[in-house]
């Protein structure tokens, strides 16, 4: 009796081995796995590999392990092979983070009141306004940046308006960090407005009334009730704006004139005119690592918040 | 009751688009009064309350708070606090922080805030839970915190927007007593909005019955229940029987009427009673049956009865007119009148009331 029970149990333990190609879900998920593999993971591995390869004499690279790409970010190699600390690329990294950070902050400053305003509209107008916010996405990114060149550039809309108002003629607002920032803020704005709007929309309006009722001015209500309760949307918007802004290429090269580089333009330059693929790849990997650090940091903070709530 | 006026509402009208929610409403609320605005949904009571808080402004008319005009003053500058129907506790703050919020905005110093918060939490029996978040509370506990939060800044007027509607029956009864006690202890003017007539009768010093954007009647609970001025009030507050009658003679506050079942009698009437068609309102509990029948007595047949424990509700057929009567089951044998029996039915003329038709 006991024997037979044990025997049955042992039999049941022996789970029939299903080969993975017998599993239907394997085939169902195959297209997305191939896409992820070829379009996402493989390129990252290639870039990682190139970043530790040796620079080719006429562009390209050779498969010899070499950390020169990474070394070049911080040090300049002299004729005799001595290393000299050069902050120029470090400064570009810092500039990139400052510009992306400024973009995020300015977007946030505009997006919160805009999202709040939209959320307080009647349903029909609300949908129309959300549509208007997304409208720039329908135009090509390069067109949107060119539009700003027309507005800010020499003989552009804004200088002419100022001239009309009696300011000296011929002012140009182009080819500086301000111009780059303007275009970056403009292109990123919808990415901030939408998630912030989504979280403000979810906010219970009576809580705002309760705050006013308890002697909270508009400012106090924003700081102590609206912002803390919409923090998840704000964090999502900030990530959506900050991360792509770090890799901005079009705005600094068109609006900033390409002289003041950001990491995106630096990478582009190394793969193009600079003919230093390993160095370009090394900067790309550095950028990715820095983004990862930022994301992990925000994820940890979000988890802490969750616990606190 | 103090004679000074905490709130004066003067010819206030409010439109929502083409819909007129309030039609030139006027009334006063005395200091230290427990004042209830009672009415069905859509009667304008919540709109009025939101106007007192400052969330809505009237299209015309004025609202005075302790003698000064407040229509143009934003909510955060009015010494008025609200207990919201949904409580509206800040979910990201502890109970302590919720109660302290208004005090911080008023600029009280830390020590004073700490004392007041402690005192308020004590008062609503929630001291042990000070560090919790609203999500960890039951409905009744949230209600208490909402009360403590609204009362902490010592407002001139406390507004309560159907605060008991989300609670279960037993808790609601307990909270009624608690609210009443709080009002007496603090001496703060309470303006309470409800559609529950029982709540209104139980707690209020005075009740304003609102209907169709107008004040139908203002009075003490007894006045509202026993001396309704029109059909709307008689119908909305409590149960009643309406009988079509002919007024044959009127005198000051009195009317001589002929009832459908032929009896002529003299009953109290509202001011407007004129000769001709009118409505007689008789509350079911004023109608006595069997050996208890007194006053104007006639006969009726029991067509239905509902045994409610403490009371039995009877439906009677009196010469083709349907009447409802309720009888307290004063002894174990109280519910003795069988269905279908023909019994004497009577009411004291003074307990009925003639209303303008």
Characterization of the model:
The complex is a heterodimer of chains A (309) and B (357). With 309 residues, chain A is mainly α. Chain A folds into two domains: 2-85, no CATH class; 88-275, MetI-like fold. Chain A has helices at residues 2-13, 24-51, 68-74, 88-119, 123-134, 141-152, 157-164, 177-202, 205-213, 218-246, 250-255, 263-271, 277-308; strands at 54-55, 61-62, 75-77, 83-85. In chain A, the strands form two sheets. Chain A has a two-stranded antiparallel sheet with strand order 1-2. In chain A, a hairpin with a 5-residue loop joins strand 1 and strand 2. The longest helix of chain A has 32 residues, at 88-119. Chain A starts with a helix and ends with a helix. By secondary structure, chain B is an alpha+beta fold. Chain B has two domains: 5-226, Rossmann fold; 239-349, RNA polymerase II/Efflux pump adaptor protein, barrel-sandwich hybrid domain (OB fold (Dihydrolipoamide Acetyltransferase, E2P)), CATH 2.40.50. Helices cover 24% and strands 37% of the residues of chain B. In chain B, the strands form four sheets. Chain B has a six-stranded mixed sheet, sandwiched between helices. A five-stranded antiparallel sheet of chain B has the order 13-12-11-14-20, with no helix packed on it. A five-stranded antiparallel sheet of chain B has the order 15-19-16-17-18, with no helix packed on it. In chain B, a hairpin with a 2-residue loop joins strand 11 (241-251) and strand 12 (254-258). In chain B, helix 3 crosses helix 4. The longest helix of chain B is centred in the middle third of the chain and has 18 residues, at 169-186. Chain B is globular. The chains are: A mainly alpha (309), B alpha+beta (357). Chains A and B meet through helix 9 and helix 10 of A and strand 6 and helix 2 of B.
| Secondary-structure element series of chain B | EEEHEEEHHHEHEHEEHHEEEEEEEEEE
The overall pLDDT of chain A, averaged over residues, is 86
Distance between the termini of chain B: 34 Å
CATH structural architecture of the largest domain in chain A: Orthogonal Bundle
Main β-sheet of chain A: number of strands, strand sense, barrel status? 2 strands, antiparallel
């Amino acid at each position: 009796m006991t024997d037979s029970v044990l025997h049955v149990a042992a039999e049941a333990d022996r789970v029939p081995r299903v080969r993975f190609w017998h599993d239907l879900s394997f085939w169902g998920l195959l297209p997305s796995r191939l896409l992820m593999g070829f379009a996402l993971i493989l390129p990252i591995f290639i870039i990682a590999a190139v970043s530790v390869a040796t620079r080719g004499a006429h562009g390209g690279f050779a498969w010899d392990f070499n950390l020169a790409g990474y070394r070049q970010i911080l040090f300049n190699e002299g004729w005799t092979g001595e290393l000299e600390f050069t902050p120029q690329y470090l400064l570009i990294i810092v500039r990139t983070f400052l510009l992306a950070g400024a973009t995020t902050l300015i977007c946030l400053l505009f997006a919160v009141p805009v999202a709040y305003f939209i959320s307080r509209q009647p349903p029909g107008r609300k949908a129309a306004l959300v549509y208007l916010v997304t409208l720039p996405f329908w135009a090509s990114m390069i067109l949107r940046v060119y539009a700003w060149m027309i507005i800010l550039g020499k003989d552009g809309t804004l200088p002419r308006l100022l001239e009309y108002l009696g300011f000296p003629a011929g002012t140009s607002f182009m080819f500086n960090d301000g111009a780059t920032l303007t275009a970056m803020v403009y292109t990123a704005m919808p990415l901030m407005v939408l998630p912030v709007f989504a979280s403000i929309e979810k906010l219970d309006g009576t809580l705002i009334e309760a705050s006013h009722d308890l002697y909270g001015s508009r400012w106090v209500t924003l700081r102590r009730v609206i912002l803390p309760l919409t923090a998840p949307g704000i964090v999502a918007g900030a990530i959506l704006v900050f991360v792509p802004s770090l890799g901005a290429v079009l705005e600094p090269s068109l609006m900033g004139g390409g002289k003041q580089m950001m990491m995106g333009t630096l990478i582009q330059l190394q793969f193009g005119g600079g003919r230093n693929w390993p160095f370009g790849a090394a900067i790309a990997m550095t950028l990715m690592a820095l983004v990862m650090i930022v994301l992990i940091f925000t994820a940890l903070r979000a988890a802490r918040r969750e616990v606190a709530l | 009751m103090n004679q000074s006026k905490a709130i004066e509402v003067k010819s206030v009208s409010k439109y929502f688009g083409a819909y007129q929610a309030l039609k030139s409403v006027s009334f006063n609320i005395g200091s230290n009064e427990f004042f209830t605005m009672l009415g069905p949904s859509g009667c304008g009571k919540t709109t009025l309350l939101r106007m007192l808080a400052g969330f809505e402004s009237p299209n015309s008319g004025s609202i005075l708070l302790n003698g000064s005009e407040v229509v143009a003053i934003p909510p955060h500058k009015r010494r008025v606090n609200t207990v919201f129907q949904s409580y509206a506790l800040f979910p990201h703050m502890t109970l302590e922080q919720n109660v302290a919020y208004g005090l911080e905005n008023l600029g009280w110093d830390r020590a004073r805030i700490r004392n007041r918060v402690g005192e308020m939490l004590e008062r609503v029996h929630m001291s042990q839970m000070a560090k919790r978040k609203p999500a960890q509370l039951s409905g009744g506990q949230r209600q208490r915190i909402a009360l403590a939060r609204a009362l902490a800044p010592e407002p001139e007027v406390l507004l309560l927007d159907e605060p008991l509607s989300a609670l279960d029956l037993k808790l609601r009864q307990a909270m009624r007593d608690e609210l009443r006690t709080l009002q007496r202890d603090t001496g703060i003017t309470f303006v309470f909005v409800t559609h529950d007539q029982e709540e209104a009768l139980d707690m209020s010093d005075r009740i304003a019955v609102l209907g169709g954007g107008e004040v139908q009647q203002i009075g003490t609970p007894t006045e509202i229940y026993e001396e309704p001025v029109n059909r709307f009030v008689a119908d909305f507050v409590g149960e009643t029987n309406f009988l079509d009658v002919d007024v044959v003679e009127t005198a000051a506050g009195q009317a001589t009427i002929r009832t459908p079942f032929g009896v002529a009698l003299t009953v109290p009437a509202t001011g407007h009673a004129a000769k001709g068609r009118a409505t007689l309102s008789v509350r079911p509990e004023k109608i006595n049956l069997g050996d208890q029948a007194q006053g104007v007595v006639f006969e009726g047949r029991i067509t239905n009865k509902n045994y409610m424990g403490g009371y039995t509700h009877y439906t009677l057929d009196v010469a083709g007119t349907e009447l409802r009567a309720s009888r307290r089951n004063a002894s174990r044998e109280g519910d003795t009148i069988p269905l279908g029996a023909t019994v004497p039915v009577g009411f004291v003329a003074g307990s009925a009331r003639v209303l303008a038709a």
